[in-house]
Every structure is written in C-alpha cells, then in structure tokens.
Amino acid sequence: LDILADLFAEAMAVDEDTQFLTGTGGGRPYGVLGDRATGTNAAIVTGVTDVNSGSASAITADGMIDLIYSLPAQYRRAAVLMATRTTHRDLRKLKDGQGNYLWQQNYAAGQPPTILGYPILEDEGMPAIAANNYPVLYGDWKNYVIVDRVGMTVERITDSTLMGQNTVAVFARRRLGGQLVAPWSFAGLQIAAS
Hints:
single chain, 194 residues, alpha+beta, two-stranded antiparallel sheet
C-alpha cells in the first residue's frame, strides 16, 4: 500500500506542476502558459508581459536582460526564473560582452543557481527552445493562487470489460484549481527575432 500511495503522490505532483504552467482551465487549473482558447503553448495568459528573445531560434543575453527589466521593481524582488533542464544548459552558456558567464552557481546547500542575480528553477513542464515558444518564465509566484479541495478519492475498478485478465486498475481523483491573480507580475521570454 505504501508503494501505491507513493506512486499516486508522484504522479499527481508531476501533473499538478504541469497544469499550473500549461492548464487551460477546462476542468483543470488556469496555467501561466498556454492559450486558454486553444490549449496550446503558443501564447501566454493575457496580461503576462511578452518579451522577445532577440533570435528566432535561441535565447540571447540581451533577451534575458530585457526579460528581467520587463517587470516593475516591486515584482522583481521575489521573482524567479523557470525553465527546463535543456534550457538551463543553454542559459549556462550565455556570456556578456567581456566573455563572463551570466549564470552563477550557488554553492550554499538548498539554494538555486542564479542568472543576472535571480534564482532559476528547473521545471520539465516548461516548453523547449523553439520558434514562438516561451521557454523561460519569470515572475513572482505568490501571485498564483492554488485552491486545493481537501481529500482524495481512490477507487478500485472491478469492471472486467475495462481491464485485462489478472490486472487491477486503481484510479485516484482529487480536485484543485489555480489561477494567476496578478498577470502583470509575470513575464515570458518568447523565441522571436523582434
């Protein structure tokens, strides 16, 4: 039973994490990324600042600087950057005009690395670097509200038409929602030339 509980917890955590980023609101949270009308990653939520990377196929140092300064100072104080592991890799290679890396590794236990002085977190739910995608999100997460209904239901399915022989199906359900309440406290870096 412990392994089942652990597997459910892990699967739900991964799904929730993705939904808080890309959920369309149709029976799921409204994510910060994703066009609510089409459910794609082609557009960020209305009100989130859209910043061009300066390249149609890559992240640029200038684009990252523009992203940081696209938010008012009061939201930059608690803002963090978020990207996938492959985007982290590419961000680590960015240099300034003197050849210095923008990425700074933080060697304190439990502290994330920084880029341009802001923490950068890794999240596999973020889009990859590709034309028109938003591979880097920057914002103050206290302005994203999560509502979690207490309780979860677990149901064992006994209908033999839904399962194969010697197979047990178990479904877990829980209800939660999420929505960005202050979209102006977030910005997304779009891979675009200008």
